[in-house]
Design a protein that fits this description.
The protein is an alpha+beta fold and about 240 residues long. The chain has helices at about 25, 35-55, 80-125, 130-140, 155-160, 185-190; strands spanning about 145-150, 165-170, 195-205, 210-220, 230-235.
C-alpha cells in the first residue's frame, strides 16, 4: 500500500506564489493607493473562490483527512494537488486579513486628511466647520455592491420598499468592503429573522421620478407565502 505518512496534512509547498511575479508585490508597498488595495482585495477573493472550487472538485475541504484509517495516503484523491491548494488558501487568507487591515487604515487616513484640509480651508476663510469630509468618506465606504434583480409580490422585501434595479449601499453592517460575494448578507439575514435590518439603497432616476437615496427597514421572516426570508434576488455588482 505504500509508506505511512504521518504529516500528510501539513503543507509542504511554499506559502507564496510558485511562479512569476504577483500583483501582490505592488500591493505590499506602503504607498499603494487605496483603490489599488481594493482591487487586490477583489483579486484575492476571486482566487480563494477558485481554490475552493478545486477542493470541492475532490470532495474535500481544508480539514478533510487525506489518509486512510491506518495512516496511508488515500488513493481516491489527488493528495499532492489538495495539499498545494490548501497551502495557497492559507497564504491567501493571511494576505486577505492584511489587506483588510490596510484598507481600514487607508480609510481612516483618508478621513483624517480630508478633515485636516477642510480645517485649514475653514481657518483661511474664517468659516465654521461642515460635514463635507464625513460625506466623502461615507460615499467611499458605501459604494454600491449589489443590485436587486427581482422582488416577489407580498414579500418582506416588497413590504420594506425594495424595488428591482435598486443598488444596495449598506445592508446592516455589510458594505462593499466586507460582503464577501454577498455571503455576509445571507448570514446577516439568517441571524436576524424577525428583526429589522436597515438597508441603504440608491434608486436610479426613471421617467417622472428623480434619483433617490433611501434608508429602508427590512425584516426577514418566514411564512410570508414564498421562498426564503426576504423574497428578493440580489446580484453582485
Amino acid at each position: 500500500m505504500g509508506i505511512p505518512m504521518d504529516s500528510i496534512h501539513a503543507p509542504t509547498v511554499a506559502s507564496g506564489p510558485t511562479s512569476g511575479p504577483s500583483p501582490r508585490n505592488e500591493a505590499n508597498r506602503d504607498d499603494v493607493p487605496l483603490m489599488k488595495l481594493i482591487q487586490e482585495k477583489d483579486r484575492v477573493e476571486e482566487e480563494l473562490k477558485a481554490l475552493g472550487g478545486v477542493l470541492d472538485s475532490h470532495g474535500v475541504n481544508m480539514n478533510t483527512s487525506l489518509t486512510t484509517f491506518d495512516g496511508y495516503p488515500r488513493d481516491d484523491i489527488d493528495v499532492a494537488q489538495i495539499r498545494t491548494t490548501r497551502a495557497r488558501v492559507i497564504h491567501l487568507r493571511n494576505d486577505y486579513k492584511d489587506l483588510m487591515a490596510r484598507i481600514e487604515r487607508g480609510l481612516h487616513a483618508h478621513h483624517a486628511s480630508v478633515a485636516e484640509a477642510e480645517k485649514q480651508r475653514l481657518n483661511a476663510r474664517g468659516s465654521s466647520t461642515n460635514d463635507d469630509d464625513d460625506s466623502m468618506t461615507s460615499d467611499l465606504v458605501e459604494t454600491p455592491f449589489a443590485k436587486v434583480n427581482t422582488v416577489v409580490s407580498g414579500s418582506p422585501a416588497e413590504q420594506a420598499g425594495l424595488k428591482a434595479s435598486d443598488e444596495i449601499r449598506r445592508f446592516g453592517n455589510i458594505t462593499w468592503m466586507n460582503h464577501e460575494k454577498l455571503s455576509k448578507i445571507a448570514e446577516t439575514v439568517q441571524r436576524n429573522e424577525g428583526r429589522m435590518i436597515r438597508v441603504k439603497v440608491s434608486r436610479r432616476a426613471t421617467e417622472g421620478h428623480p434619483a433617490e437615496e433611501l434608508v429602508l427597514q427590512l425584516t426577514p421572516r418566514s411564512g410570508w407565502g414564498g421562498r426564503g426570508l426576504l423574497g428578493c434576488h440580489l446580484l453582485p455588482l
